[in-house]
Amino acid sequence: MSKIRAFNAVVYVLVVVPFAILFMYMFGRYNRVIRRFVAKIFLKIFCVKYEEIGSIDKEAQILVMNHQSFMDVIVLEAICPLNLCWIAKKELGEAFLYGHALKAPKMILINRESKREIIRLLKEAEDRLHNNRVLCIFPEGTRSKGGEKLLPFKQGAKVLIDNFKLKVQPIVFFGTRANLDVGAFKFDNSNFTIKYLESFIPSGDDWYNELKELMQDEYTKIYTKSDICMGE
After folding, report:
1. What does this protein do (predicted)?
2. Cβ-count burial of 60 within 10 angstroms (0-12 exposed, 13-18 middle, 19+ buried)?
3. Taking residues 10-18, what's their average pLDDT?
4. Helices and strands of the chain, counted as H and E runs
5. 202 membership: H or E segment, kind and range
6. Of the ranges 28-42, 65-79, 134-148, 192-206, which one carries the lowest mean pLDDT score?
């Protein structure tokens, strides 16, 4: 059933996303509406179930999240009322079809192997913020396997936040990899959790490490609770 559901999800992407890309290029000012509609329909068709703890801060300027699955992006695109701007690795923008799904709405694509890219990141981030976009970044830099520990945080997010003095809202995803694993072509559609932590404007020299520890603590609480539930 998992493989069949994954196949159906691929069919949905191949059929619907090209039209979404076309409409975003044609009607740029409505790209957020289009993206949200496509993501909402995906959740509805596949009866995706999740638990939200807390709520989105509509005054947040950047959302900092751990990353387990492409479902992280789909669900946030569907449920978040803000005009999101994802920061992703440049290679994703070169992919057939999916690349244009990032380019059409002017997501920020960077070459993480080049230290000079930070200048372009800051320039593009300033443009998106000026246009009332809310930045979204996965500081781990890649998808984790959904184990007990978050991956180390890369420094790009810290430089970006410090430079613009952004209001940060951390978000913790748990169980999205078990729900949808694109690499393994599995779509079990199990329940997952999204926890919105309190927003803050960073201060002090060690705030980034403290943020990592906070997100790890919150993730561990959900992880432990999940283990208890499974044990029962």
Report:
1. Converts lysophosphatidic acid (LPA) into phosphatidic acid by incorporating acyl moiety at the 2 position.
2. buried
3. 93
4. 9, 7
5. none
6. 134-148
Dump pLDDT digits (tens) for 99-149.
899 999 999 998 876 777 888 999 999 999 999 999 999 999 888 988 889
Residue type, 163: N
Q: What is the pLDDT of residues 139-165, one digit of tens each?
A: 998 889 888 899 999 998 999 999 999
CB 99 within 8 Å of CB 93: yes
How big is the chain, counted in residues?
Answer: 232
Domain of residue 76: give its range: 2-231
User: For position 30, which CATH number holds?
Assistant: 3.40.1130
CB 196 within 8 A of CB 52: yes
Number of structural domains (the chain) is 1
Round to whole Å and give the CA distance between 69 and 193: 13
Q: For residue 80, with 0-12 CB atoms within 10 Å meaning exposed, 13-18 middle and 19 or more buried, which class applies?
A: buried
Contacts 24+ apart (CB under 8 A), 221-228: 222/172, 222/174, 222/193, 222/195, 223/148, 223/174, 226/174, 226/175
